[in-house]
Amino acid sequence: MSTTDPAHPEAEGPTRAFVLHPDIRSDRTRRPAGPALQEAVALAAALPELEVVGSETVGLPKAQPGLLFGKGKIAELKARIAALDAELVLIDGPVSPVQQRNLEKEWNVKILDRTGLILEIFADRARTREGVLQVELAALSYQRTRLVRAWTHLERQRGGLGFVGGPGETQIEADRRAIDDAITRIRRQLQKVVKTRSLHRAARAKVPFPVVALVGYTNAGKSTLFNRLTGAEVMVKDMLFATLDPTMRSVELPDGIEIILSDTVGFISDLPTLLVAAFRATLEEVLDADLIVHVRDVAHADTEAQAADVAAILNDLGVSSDTPQLELWNKTDLLPPEARAEMQAIAERRDGVLTLSALTGAGVPELLQAISDALSPPRLPATLLVPFAEGRKRAWLFQEGVVEAETAGEAGYEIRVNWTARQKQAFAAL
Question: How many other CB atoms sit within 10 Å of the CB of residue 48?
Fold first, then answer.
C-alpha cells in the first residue's frame, strides 16, 4: 500500500496515514463520533504497513456530492494533511468514486474509504484458500464500482484514436470485461471450495459432535477464549480482525460430551454489503451451529452498540431464532472491582448470560457447564420391566448412566430411568 516511488526503494517505509471520521448529522444511522473514530484508528493500526500520524472527526450537516466536505473544510484539512506529511487519508465511511478522485486531486494524496481499508485488512489476514478467494471476489466487486477513477488515470497516460466514444470509455469497458471475467473465474473456484466444505460438514454431521460457534464483534476476545478452551494457537493480538479464517477444534466438556468449537471472523458495524455477501460461506459454520456463544467486550465503551451490530448481522445471515445462544460478557478483568461485581450481579439475574475473562480464565468452568447444559437434550422419566433373561439390555442402561433405581421382582428387574428420546429409541432397537 506504500505510496513511495518504486524507482527509489530506499525511500520505502510505513505509509503515513491520517484518519478522518465524517460525522454526518443527516445520517440517521450514524454512530457516536468518539467511539467511531477510535474504531477507525484501530482499523488503520491493524495494517502493519500503516503509521497513523493523526486523526480527526469532521462534523457535517450533510455529505457534499462532489467532494464530501465543504470547500472551507477541504482547505483546512489540506493544510493539516500537509503539516503531518501524510501520504494516505483514510475516510471512515463510504466515499464515491467521484469524491475519491476529486479529493485526491485536491489534497494530492491517496484516499481510501472504510470498505477499501477493511478489504486491505482482509487481504492481509486471509490464510485459507477460501478466505483468499473471498477477499479477491470482494476486492474485484469493489474495484468494478471505481472504474471512473481508473479512467482519469488511464486517459492521462495513454493516447487513443477515439473511434468508439473516446479512449477513456473504451478502456472502462475493457477493464469491466476483465474484472467480470475474473469474478466469474473466482466464483467457479469458490463453488468447488464451498462444495468441499459442505462435504466436510456432511461428514461431521454423521459424527454425534455438536458444533458451538464463537461469534462477536471484532477484537472481543474470541480467539483468546478459543485458545484457552482448546489449547490451539490461533493468532491473538489486540487488533481488529486478528482472526479472519474459521478455525475448528474439538473440546471435551465436563460431562464427557465432545463438541466442535468454531472461531469465526469478527463482526463490525457498517460492514459493507459486498463483504457480508463475499464472506457468507466463511460464516456458514454459524448457520450450522447447534449453539452460538456471543462473546462481548463489556469493558468497551460502545459494548451495547457492538452487541446490537452482532445481532443484526446474525439476523441478516439468516441464523434461526431456534438456535440456542449464550451471551458471554468477556474482559471483566479490565473493569474496576465495583463495576465487575455489578456486572456479575446483573448477569446472574439473566438467563443465558455469563461473565468471564478469557485472559485470566476466570469464569471458564461455568462457561463449559453452561455449554453442556444448553446442549443436553431434555430427559424423560420412565419405569421399565427388564426380564432376567435380557441381561444385555440391563447392562446397556447402566452403561448409558440413565438408571436411577432398580428392584428385583418375580418377572425381572423393575428399573426407573431418566433418559433422552434418542436413548429410548436406541433401547427399543436392542
Answer: 9
The 3 state secondary structure assigned to 100-161 is HHHHHHHHCCEEEEHHHHHHHHHHHHCCCHHHHHHHHHHHHHHHHCCHHHHHHHHHHHCCCC
Largest CA distance in the chain: 105
Strands 258-263 and 247-252, by their bridges, are antiparallel
Query: No. of H helices and E strands in the chain?
Result: 15, 13
Please tell me which of 177-181, 203-207, 251-255 the model is most confident about, judged by mean pLDDT.
Answer: 177-181
Q: What is the model's pLDDT at position 350?
A: 93
Distances (CA, A) of 235 to 6, 37, 127, 229, 310: 32, 25, 11, 14, 22
Q: Please, which residues have CB within 8 angstroms of residue 21's CB and are 6 or more apart in sequence?
A: 33, 36, 37, 40, 55, 56, 57, 58, 92, 93
CA angle 55, 33, 303 (to 5 degrees): 110
Q: What is the pLDDT of residue 284?
A: 67
Distance CA 422, CA 236 (A): 40
Q: What is the mean pLDDT of residues 366-390?
A: 89
Cα(420)–Cα(430) distance, integer angstroms: 16
243: nearest Cα among 211, 276, 218: 218
pTM of the model: 0.66
pLDDT level of residue 106 (50, 70, 90 thresholds): very high
- Please state which of the ranges 212-221, 242-251, 327-336, 406-415 shows the lowest mean pLDDT: 242-251
* Burial bucket for residue 271 (CB in 10 Å: 0-12, 13-18, 19+): buried
Task: Tell me 419's DSSP state.
Answer: E
Would you state the pLDDT for residue 231?
78
Q: What is the bridge-based pairing of β-strands 110-113 and 88-91?
A: parallel
Q: Picking from 239-248, 255-264, 310-319, 346-355, which range would have the lowest pLDDT averaged per residue?
A: 239-248
Cβ-based neighbours of 385, under 8 Å, separated by 6 or more: 409, 411, 412, 413, 414, 415
Residues 6+ apart with CB under 8 A from 362: 332, 333, 356
User: What average pLDDT does the segment 307-323 reach?
Assistant: 83
Q: Give the cell for residue 119.
A: 478489504
More confident position, 247 or 407: 407
Q: What is the pLDDT of residue 367?
A: 93
Distance separating alpha carbons of residues 109 and 78, to the nearest angstrom: 10
**In this structure, what C-alpha cell is assigned to residue 420?**
433422552
Give all strands of the β-sheet with 353-355 in edge-to-edge order: 247-252, 258-263, 211-216, 291-297, 325-330, 353-355
Q: CA-based angle 7:88:244, to the nearest 5? A: 100
Beta carbons of 372 and 257 less than 8 angstroms apart: yes
